[in-house]
């Protein structure tokens, strides 16, 4: 084996290592694209429009900001947050705190978390499972299911009383 | 030579499809120029020493001050491009390297580099709003374009090939300790390839390309 071949192998190895490494430090996610943040101290993902699939895990702080029809999942994070428009599906687990702002028809699952807090839009559904506390403010009709949650509180922004539906379900507007 | 150019062309084409951008392509151009120069200069300096083990300057330590161009996404909070200064000291640990029939040698190098990167604005939160239950929700991305100062401490094995009296090249696998404004850690694998042009036996122009930076400098073989 000549030195030239060795040199080229070494140079090629460097370039291969670079080219085969996924780049996660670029700009916002594109619609229908999955974006992931992991193994950094802090990371916040944006979306160039609607329909992004955002994921965060194993970070101190992470969050997603998106317009409509986005998916967001974070786990094993100290502080997780999501700000989303209409028709979003959000999940947070294995965290100290999870905070959410979302608009109409939002579906949020917060489980195995110390503190869950959300402001959700009309037609939204929230599941708080195995949490110390879960506080939700509803802008319109919403349903909140609390299971194995020490403190569950739902506030209806229109001033109407919270409805106790039974089986851990609280609602604004109607139970179904 | 043809295979080398073919490899470079392939890499060049692939680099054009990545999002790393013009700086990476320019760096690849620099690499291809360096390899081409090496090829031609070896042809010109017919006095090859690669097959004569031991025919090279005798030294104990290579002292190498250099400038750095951070061309790849670095470990830590910065983002390319980055520019900086640093130095490397490489101690020769084996005068005869792994290949007995070739003029190769092995050293252990340790360095200290300072690189100034642009902040990773797209992955910071520009605005937090307090939410229910003591939560904080990020409602805007970006906003922090502050520069990120990064320190690197590379520890590498340097495998040298002494091609001619004027040219030597090396490969450097190793690890990298990185410390910046926001985080620090150890990057487990770094790879680099480089070359030296021997202005004098013990004084060279030295360049390397690898992760996370390209370096240009001089070496004193002491």
Oligomer: heterodimer
Main sheet makeup of chain A: 10 strands, mixed
Element-level helix/strand string of chain B: HHEEEEEEEEEE
Q: What would you call the structural class of chain B?
A: alpha+beta
Contiguous low-pLDDT stretches of chain A (5 residues minimum) are 16-27
Helix content of chain B: 10-25%
Gross geometry of chain A? globular
Backbone CA Rg of chain B: 21 Å
Binned, the helix content of chain A reads under 10%
What is the first-to-last residue Cα distance of chain A?
75 Å
What portion of residues of chain A belong to β-strands?
over 45%
**Major β-sheet annotation of chain B:** 8 strands, antiparallel, barrel
N-to-C order of helices and strands of chain A: HEEEEEEEEEE
Q: What number is the mean pLDDT of chain B? A: 81
Detail the topology: elements first, then pairings.
The complex is a heterodimer of chains A (176) and B (222).
Chain A: H1 3-19, E1 34-38, E2 42-45, E3 53-65, E4 71-83, E5 89-101, E6 107-121, E7 124-139, E8 142-156, E9 163-166, E10 169-172
Chain B: H1 2-17, H2 22-44, E1 61-70, E2 78-94, E3 104-119, E4 125-130, E5 136-141, E6 148-162, E7 167-180, E8 184-200, E9 203-210, E10 213-221
Antiparallel strand pairs in B: 1-2, 1-10, 2-3, 3-6, 4-5, 6-7, 7-8, 8-9, 9-10
Can you characterise this structure?
- The complex is a heterodimer of chains A (176) and B (222).
- Chain A has 176 residues and is mainly beta.
- Helix content of chain A is 10%, strand content 58%.
- Chain A has one helix and ten strands.
- Chain A has one helix at 3-19, and strands spanning 34-38, 42-45, 53-65, 71-83, 89-101, 107-121, 124-139, 142-156, 163-166, 169-172.
- In chain A, a hairpin with a 2-residue loop joins strand 9 (163-166) and strand 10.
- Chain A starts with a helix and ends with a strand.
- In chain A, 48% of the residues are buried.
- Mean pLDDT of chain A is 86; it is low at 16-27.
- The two termini of chain B are 33 Å apart.
- In chain B, strands 1-2-3-6-7-8-9-10 form an eight-stranded antiparallel barrel.
- Chain B is α+β, with helices and mostly antiparallel strands.
- In chain B, helix 1 (2-17) packs antiparallel against helix 2 (22-44).
- In chain B, a hairpin with a 7-residue loop joins strand 1 and strand 2.
- Helix content of chain B is 18%, strand content 53%.
- The model of chain B is unreliable at 1-30 and 39-44 (pLDDT under 50).
- The chains are: A mainly beta (176), B alpha+beta (222).
- The interface between A and B is large, with 51 and 54 residues.
């Amino acid at each position: 084996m000549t030195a030239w071949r060795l040199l080229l192998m070494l140079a090629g190895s460097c370039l291969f290592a670079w080219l085969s490494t996924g780049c996660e430090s670029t700009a916002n996610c594109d619609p229908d694209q999955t974006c992931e943040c992991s193994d950094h101290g802090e990371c916040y993902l944006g979306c160039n429009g609607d329909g992004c699939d955002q994921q965060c895990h194993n970070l101190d702080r992470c969050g997603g900001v998106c317009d409509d029809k986005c998916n967001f999942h974070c786990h094993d994070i100290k502080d997780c947050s999501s700000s989303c428009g209409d028709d979003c599906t959000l999940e947070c687990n294995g965290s100290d705190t999870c905070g959410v702002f979302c608009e109409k028809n939002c579906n949020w699952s917060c489980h195995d978390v110390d503190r869950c807090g959300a402001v959700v839009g009309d037609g939204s559904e929230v599941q708080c499972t195995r949490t110390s506390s879960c506080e939700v403010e509803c802008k319109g009709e919403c349903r909140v299911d609390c299971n194995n949650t020490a403190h569950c509180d739902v506030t209806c922004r229109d001033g109407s009383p919270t409805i106790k539906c039974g089986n851990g379900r609280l609602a604004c507007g109607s139970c179904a | 030579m043809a295979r080398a150019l073919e490899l470079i062309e392939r890499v060049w084409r692939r680099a054009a499809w990545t999002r790393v951008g013009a700086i990476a392509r320019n760096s690849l151009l620099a690499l291809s120029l360096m390899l081409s120069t090496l090829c031609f200069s070896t042809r010109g300096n017919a006095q090859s020493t690669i097959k004569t083990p031991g025919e090279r300057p005798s030294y104990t330590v290579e002292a190498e001050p250099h400038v750095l161009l951070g061309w790849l996404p670095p470990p830590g909070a910065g983002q390319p491009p980055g520019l900086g200064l640093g130095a490397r000291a490489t101690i020769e640990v084996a005068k005869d390297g792994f290949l007995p029939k070739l003029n190769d040698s092995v050293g252990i190098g340790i360095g200290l580099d300072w690189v100034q990167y642009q902040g990773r604005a797209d992955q910071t939160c520009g605005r937090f709003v307090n939410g229910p239950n003591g939560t904080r929700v990020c409602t805007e991305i970006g906003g922090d374009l502050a520069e990120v100062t990064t320190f690197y401490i590379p520890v590498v094995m340097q495998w040298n090939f002494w091609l001619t009296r004027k040219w030597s090249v090396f490969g450097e696998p190793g690890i990298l300790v990185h410390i910046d404004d926001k985080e620090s850690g150890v990057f487990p694998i770094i790879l680099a390839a480089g070359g030296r042009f021997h202005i004098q036996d013990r004084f060279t122009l030295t360049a390397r390309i690898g992760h996370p930076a390209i370096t240009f400098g001089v070496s004193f073989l002491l």
